[in-house]
Automatic annotation (TrEMBL):
SUPFAM superfamilies, alphabetized: Adenine nucleotide alpha hydrolases-like (SSF52402)
Ranges of residues in domain UspA: 2-138
InterPro entries membership: Rossmann-like_a/b/a_fold (IPR014729), Universal_stress_UspA (IPR006015), UspA (IPR006016)
Highest taxon, organism lineage: Bacteria
Family under the similarity heading: Belongs to the universal stress protein A family.
Pfam families: Usp (PF00582)
UniProt name for this protein: Nucleotide-binding universal stress UspA family protein
Length: 283
């Protein structure tokens, strides 16, 4: 069965990089890629008749731009050289990005969303665009792999998985992380950040559960001291040249401030390192 992957695009360089990164990441796997563009009418004018006519013209313009942009992507992929294991489908939807992604996931039975971390209209000094943050924070029906503009896939050797060992894990929450590690023959670095390396009985049990979940992949256990989890993760990733960071976005995660403005500015590693965001299976 082909893996179904959704890639939203706004036709920016970052969105194109996400498409090529995903294609290379899963080059040895049978995949169906769904390239999604969400558009909306943008013009407004005074008066009901004038407004209706202007919005209709705007709708047709945006609809045509969406169809043309998606067709251009298919041409670019063809020029790049298609993988016989991959097939591409285009989806053009009049909706906001989050709603379009959610509806496409449901209609197409999508397993993974891959998207650029910045869009065409985002400021240069922002590592994450507003649409990306909105999707990563609110989309809970699929894991999301965020790809920075500067990320290039040569070979993933190491994926960092920060944890406090304070919550229990389930295999179904981690299946995509394990799959990527297997496909790339990568090692998962389970990183415990805490000033006190000793674990409680409950943490020991959760640690054993996590080890069981990773039994089909290569993994190693690491501890780093520090009370500031986010900066400690950043320091660890940069010191080792890790290739990806992954975590489960629980409602009360110890990394739940990762998308706040100060945190995004602090986590400069995400200008080059992809981020795999998974979700608590209860939601």
């Amino acid at each position: 069965m082909k893996k179904k992957i959704l890639i939203p695009t706004d036709f920016s360089k970052n969105a194109w990089n996400a498409i090529t990164y995903a294609s290379d990441l899963f080059k040895n796997k049978e995949c169906s890629f769904f390239l999604l563009n969400a558009y909306n009418a943008t013009m407004h004018s005074r008066g009901h008749l004038m407004k209706d006519k202007a919005e209709m013209l705007s709708f047709e313009t945006e609809k045509n731009k969406s169809a043309s942009g998606l067709a251009n992507i298919l041409e670019m992929l063809d020029f790049r050289g298609l993988n016989e294991k991959h097939e591409y489908h285009i989806v053009s939807v009049k909706d906001d990005p989050l709603s379009a992604i959610q509806s496409t996931i449901e209609k197409k039975d999508i397993e993974l969303v891959v998207m650029g971390t910045k869009g065409a209209s985002n400021y240069e000094n922002k590592l994450f665009g507003s649409n990306t943050i909105n999707v990563m924070e609110n989309l809970r029906s699929s894991p999301i792999l965020g790809i920075p503009l500067d990320a290039r896939l040569v070979h993933i050797k190491e994926i960092v998985f920060p944890t406090s060992f304070k919550t229990h894990y389930k295999r179904r929450e981690l299946v995509h992380l394990v799959e990527i590690a297997q496909l790339q023959d990568a090692n998962i670095c389970v990183l415990h950040v805490n000033d006190h390396p000793e674990l409680t009985v409950e943490q020991q049990e959760n640690k054993q559960l996590l080890e069981d979940c990773f039994e089909d992949a290569s993994f190693s256990l690491h501890h780093i001291g520090g009370s500031d989890v986010n900066s400690s993760v950043k320091r660890f990733v940069e010191s080792r040249g890790s290739d990806m960071v992954s975590f489960i976005n629980r409602k009360h995660s110890f990394l739940d401030s990762i998308f706040s403005t100060p945190m995004v500015e602090e986590l400069g590693m995400f200008s080059k390192v992809p981020l795999l965001v998974m979700h608590d299976s209860k939601y």
